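GGDEF-domain containing protein, pasting as requested.
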Amino acid sequence: MVGHINQTVAQAELDSSRGALLLLDLDDFKNINDSLGYAIGDKLLIQVAERLTQFTKHLDGVSLARIGSDEFVLLCPDLGHGYTSAKTRAEQLAHSLNEQFVIPFELDTLRLHLSASIGISLFPVAQLGQEEYLRQADTANHIAKQVAPGSHVFFSQEMADEIQDRLRISNDLQQALANNELDLYFQPQQQVADNKPVGMEALLRWIPPGKKTIPPSVFIPVAEETSLICDIGNWVLQQACACFQRWQHSSLPLGNLSVNISARHFHSPDFIARLTVLMQQYPGCRHNLTLEVTEGVFLENLTESRSRMAHIKALGVNLSIDDFGTGYSSFAYLRELPVDELKLDRSFIQYIDQRPQDKAIIACLLDLARTLGMSVVAEGVETEQQLATLAELNCPAYQGYLRAHPMSEADLIAWLEKH
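Structure tokens follow.
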């Protein structure tokens, strides 16, 4: 196929015409193999290939090849002489390709619904090696899978640069974990009524030697794409529990310690076993440790999540729903899950003193939490007006820059001693 691509690109350069390479990758094909077996997977691939062959048969000059287990390439020359017309035609082809998957595939007694993501690389591009087009389409396909199953994405250099940056961050982060470049900061949580400390949230920081601190918003999304987030999450839990147990020998007003848990970490096979060991190693954290998860974490698999949460509660660990109100926010699951706390997202708190709608939403959520016997922490409180409105609504606790920024362990101890 590579040789054919080279010839097609070379001919396009001679003819001053444009074409496209479409890389099609079946979505969640691995799950089909794992759940139904490889024999079914092979039959499905044969049907996909037959359907694509029928599709390309009526397209003048278009070539089809299977280049991987569930990957197919369409090489489409002569899509026009201008960039816009070629891109428009390639997009039409991508839509037509996706239509081939609207009808389910019949396999013996099975009816399987399938989709495919498509990455598109246009050619020719000045000073681009001919072997790069397939790599470009693969990069675009990777992004398409992140956008949504069954979507298509055109390659761009910005996209390639972003992927390179993410790869570099991933590699550097792996080294950072090994070289002890990660650190925990802590942001206090306080009572709205009297500012009395009631707990703290552990926040991860990456501080490379001799460089500026890298914020979590940069590296956490990269880590979440791989199992690296589990390694980091285990490190955070271990360090946070060790700190909390150490502090208990003082007379500091500690309250609860909150730690964020990612979806991948929460659902990892050894998560409960590791948490069990931690509670044995740091018994002072029992009934004082709160795991913060977003709504999406347990809605991925409600049955499994309910079971995991029951195990977590049995260990004496509390559970909190982070960023509540911004995700799925189906109140039905609140009566089914053993949740102790809701954290109100900063997007509602930001304008709570200015927008009656936001104030009304927070009032409803506070009433709901009280009825269900849950505690509440409002995040992102930055002004006295916001705090006053929360007091008016009888919100129990808050955290935010108004009273306390995230701080190192030493600064936290000094802050707690002062309060």
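Note for the archive: The chain has a mean pLDDT of 91.
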